[in-house]
Specification:
It is built from eight helices and seven strands, in the order βαβαβαβαβαβαααβ. It has a seven-stranded parallel β-sheet, with helices on both faces.
Length: 255
């Protein structure tokens, strides 16, 4: 797997799955633009780690819910590395509230970070690829919950369901223009967003019992998958979701 010479933007790239994607793509030779909204020190450390490993990365403090900031990421990539090849829409959030508990602010925040950012980030990058007359790839970090219900986390599931149709519809729309779109659908991943479950033995046991492989994924496993999909081995994939869930989508029960 080689991404030598490619330039990749990763939104929400300084922690969790995003950080793992940055490390995996940089390790495969890609130049990386790391988007972040907080924790600049962690971003600086990640950039240093990438450089120490022989890679190249820069950071940009940008709010993925703002269209001007999404366009600024494209400019940062082109100004720094001369071009752009891959956008990874990874930034995400959740409230873990049911339909009846969800406030308007909860809903607006989840939709803006999870779905609006992916929609308009894809628009900005696709337009760049088309104007530059070059092939491009957009990878959305979605979730098994783009397909599988998760009672008690309704807005998140609605946003991820929107990402499902974004990939299927925009992937078809853009195919003849040389732009592909793929969703990656992780199951349960051992990242800070799942800390409350990981710290509760009963919840963790119930979760692991629901997963056929019997464990949560490591963030590095999702990062490696995204890096693989960004390479030539996945060149015939578009308008679809690749699930990395330990078999969860095929198992019964609720999660």
């Amino acid at each position: 797997m080689s991404l030598e010479g490619k330039t990749v933007i990763v939104t929400g790239g300084n922690s969790g799955i995003g950080e793992a994607i940055v490390r995996a793509a940089a390790g495969a030779g890609a130049n990386i633009v790391i988007d972040y909204v907080a924790h600049p020190d962690e971003t600086a450390q990640l950039i240093e780690d990438v450089a120490d490993a022989g890679g190249h990365a820069v950071g940009i403090q940008a709010d993925v819910t703002r269209l001007d900031d999404l366009k600024a990421m494209v400019r940062k990539a082109v100004d720094t590395f001369g071009d752009l090849d891959v956008l990874v829409n990874n930034a995400g959030t959740e409230t873990r509230h049911s339909l009846l508990e969800t406030t308007e602010d909860d809903y607006d925040t989840v939709m803006a970070v999870d779905l609006k950012s992916a929609f308009f980030g894809s628009q900005a990058d696709a337009q760049y690829f088309i104007d530059a007359r070059r092939e491009g790839l957009i990878i959305n970090v979605s979730s098994v919950h783009e397909e599988r219900p998760m009672p008690g986390n309704t807005a998140y599931c609605v946003a991820k369901g929107g990402m499902r149709m974004l990939a299927r519809t925009a992937g078809v729309e853009l195919a003849d223009k040389g732009v592909r779109m793929i969703n990656v659908g992780p199951g349960a991943v051992a990242t800070p967003i799942n800390r409350s479950t990981m710290d509760d033995p009963a919840k963790l046991e119930a979760l692991e019992n629901a997963i056929p492989l019997g464990r949560m994924a490591d963030a590095e496993e999702i990062g490696d998958l995204v890096a693989m999909l960004a390479g030539s081995a996945a060149a015939y994939l578009t308008a679809t979701t690749v699930y990395a869930d330990g078999g969860l989508m095929q198992a019964g029960g609720g999660l």
